[in-house]
Amino acid sequence: xxxxEQIESKILDKQGNNYVNLEKMIKIANSEPLFKLSxxxxxxxDVFRELGNLSAHKIWYNSTKxxxxxxxxxxxxxxxxxxxxxxxxx
Length: 90
Hints:
- This protein has four helices and no strands.
- By secondary structure, it is mostly helical.
- The protein has one domain.
- Helix 1 packs antiparallel against helix 2 and helix 2 packs across helix 4.
- It is globular.
């Protein structure tokens, strides 16, 4: 979405070489007027970020199919909205 709207610089670090972390990127996306993300997508992006964060960084936590099954419809709706906003799909 940032690339499509030619505002990728908003999610780059101060040196302009690397992307900011996902938490910061989500905050920026949620406040970006060009995107006009739905409230559900705004909330759900952080839910899925946290699930991924736990799975990647907590040594004693493994996300299971059961953890994800209850969220699958919300995940699909969020991803589709983001794809439409990025103009990847019409």
